[in-house]
């Protein structure tokens, strides 16, 4: 699904190097967790996967289903099946959530050469997915994320993910700002999307998210490199012992 080879990247304007040789493989159907201290490059990795233009790849490659995506713009990556759930979803005043969802879904279908959904079919899909995520239908009439609580914003993103049906879901600290009830709802939404054809890259600081979205692999990112890889028990070890020992071992 995803293969990252010796990836080096920097902030385009400043020239500050953030990623310093990331190597990572995510298989079809795998949930891979990325953990690490603040400033390790976790969010930068997610932005680069999505094609954010203010970061520059200086070395290495990113292969998605065997093909390099470095020359693809964000829209092309999205149409190919790459989805990024933001740590802090943006507010878009004046654009109703329902309008945004329909426009995004039909734009991707058109890019893939598929027919656009009719309004009745779109409404059926939205109502079904929104009910699963305990989203009040009135929320979908409001401008996207404007006045939403942290939990509502994250549920709205998982709703987007459910409707767009991406193949690679990159989740940048989706648990940030969620209380335990909202966390469970979001995790249930993610788990409902698990399949042999869909992979997840879950970026988080804390073990608590991984209690609900159980990873197949856990990778520790530090100073722009993966310094340790293990199974779900590695996340528990990090929760109990912190990063110091692993960082010392990698030094």
From TrEMBL:
User: One Pfam family from the UniProt entry?
Assistant: ABC_tran
> Which GO terms fall under molecular function for this chain's record?
ATP binding; ATP hydrolysis activity
Q: Which gene encodes it?
A: sufC
UniProt protein name: Fe-S cluster assembly ATPase SufC
- Domain of life per record: Bacteria
Q: Which NCBIfam families match?
A: sufC
Family the UniProt entry places it in: Belongs to the ABC transporter superfamily. Ycf16 family.
Q: Which UniProt keywords apply?
A: ATP-binding, Nucleotide-binding
All copies of the ABC transporter domain together span 2-248
């Amino acid at each position: 699904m995803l293969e990252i080879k010796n990836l080096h990247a920097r902030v385009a304007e400043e020239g500050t190097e953030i990623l310093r040789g990331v190597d990572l493989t995510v298989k079809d159907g795998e949930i891979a967790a990325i953990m690490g201290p603040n400033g390790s490059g976790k969010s930068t990795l997610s932005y680069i996967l999505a094609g954010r233009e203010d970061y520059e790849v200086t070395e290495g490659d990113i292969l998605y289903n065997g093909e390099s995506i470095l020359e693809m713009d964000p829209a092309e990556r999205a149409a190919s099946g790459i989805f990024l759930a933001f740590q802090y979803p943006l507010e878009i005043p004046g654009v109703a959530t329902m309008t945004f969802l329909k426009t995004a879904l039909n734009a991707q279908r058109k890019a893939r050469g598929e027919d656009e959904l009719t309004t009745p079919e779109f409404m059926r899909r939205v109502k079904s997915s929104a009910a699963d995520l305990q989203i009040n239908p009135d929320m979908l009439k409001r401008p996207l994320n404007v006045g939403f609580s942290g939990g509502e914003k994250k549920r709205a993103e998982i709703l987007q993910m459910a409707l767009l049906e991406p193949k690679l879901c990159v989740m940048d600290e989706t648990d940030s700002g969620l209380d335990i009830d909202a966390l469970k709802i979001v995790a249930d939404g993610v788990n409902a999307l698990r399949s042999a054809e869909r992979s997840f890259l879950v970026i988080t600081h804390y073990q608590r998210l991984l209690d609900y979205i159980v990873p197949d692999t856990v990778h520790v990112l530090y100073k722009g490199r993966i310094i340790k890889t293990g199974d779900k028990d590695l996340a528990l070890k990090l929760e109990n012992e912190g990063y110091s020992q692993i960082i010392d071992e990698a030094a």
